[in-house]
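Board notes (copied after class):
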Amino acid sequence: MLEMLTLLRLSCEGEYEHEYTSVYTFHSASANLTIELTDDYAVRHDTLNDLNKAIMYWLLIVIAQAPLEMQSIFQRYLDAVSSNDALRSIGQVEMGKSVALELAKTLPPTSTVSHFPSWGNCKADLANDLARSFSSRMLYNGEATHLSSLPEVEFKSSLAEIKKNLHEINDQINSGLKKMTIEDLSSVLYKAGSHVLADSRPDLDLLFHIVSIPIKVFNVKPEVEIKLMTEVINMWAWTLRRRKGLFSSACDLINPLNQSIQFTPTDREEMKPRHNTVKRMLKPHHILLDFVLSRFQAARYQNRTLVLITSRLLKNTLSNVKHWSTHPLSRELRIRLIIFGFSLCQGSRMEDNVECNLREVCYLAGLDWFKLTPSFNFGSNRLQHESELRLLQDLLAMVIVDKPVNAHHLSSLDPGTKLNRLPGQTSATVASLCHSDRNHLFQLLLENEIIRLMAWQNPLSDVKRGKNVESIISKATGEGQSC
């Protein structure tokens, strides 16, 4: 049932991703299920909605009768990896797993917690228990897979060592002595559970200790955050030196006049491999940027070191814009990096020379795209178009309100002498005029880029295909003025 929802949802996405070349057959390898649908998307939508209502109604009845069993089934389904999962892009929506995740944390009607009101518009659920049990299941499965491949002698030796550790822990608990850390205790219990899964004949002594010894939960380790972020940023710099991902020229834009001309219809199957190659090339930097953004927003007000290393990452990346890929699909990643740079300039207190240098490379990186031959990701993938439009709108709103702060200057000179200079030995007045001209030029180019993209996305200003050009630009301008 859940795989059926995934396939139907995938068929509905074709309205945006394959607008001109409909796909009629969909297959699930994990469920050995194949469905064939009409090209009428309205029928697909109605079928998906009706089936989703029926499945949710039936599953909620079953959860009320067997909550623990259903939670186990949902977790196995979420943990399952089919043969074609490796071919799916990261971030793809699977409705079946979304429904399973939602139901796996649903409280059964018999739970007393289910009678709590929805304080803060947040309904009580079992999200905490689900996260804990699912992480444990992942570790158990990994240990069990390794143990299953061991020779019998090594397996018995490992089993004996685990039993010895469990007996020692049990004796410590009974005597009131606690010499083991929570991390060591959790590790031993995880390994014991893996032995139970890997052994064809369950060991009753092992099961007794697993049940009798309380399971502890792992804690996060904030002390490794800076070290981890430093390693991530070092590897980002490594991709720059080795010309990987965003910094690779393998998929740079080729002048159409240097390519052969073919008067044949567009073949989506022929274009798909090239499209996937570029997406795979850029995806690692998208993932790394998501991670850096997330950690930066979470710790920017409590960790100055994190802000410092992030600003160095951005300055180094934006300064090497000449090495960025010029493929049309790289524009989304380009805009995200520039938005990140502007948000750092506008939302962090920095020394004015550092702020001036970072803001300058943000503008240079943004203007670099417009020196290239105009190129767009033309095609039937409306999701890509809308994503780029939203990013361009966000960037335009940030550029409209952008202005230098220059409120924190470190110098041994007396501020009253007016001898303090910004990079390039320019005064604050000259720097302000240069910024005004550059800001106005960047605004015009962004507005023109939005108009060009909307000419393909929604040439007739159809309400069903999104907002028109005027509303998008006026909204960005209005947001900028209100800020």
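Comment from the instructor: The chain has a mean pLDDT of 78. The first strand starts at residue 25 and ends at 28.
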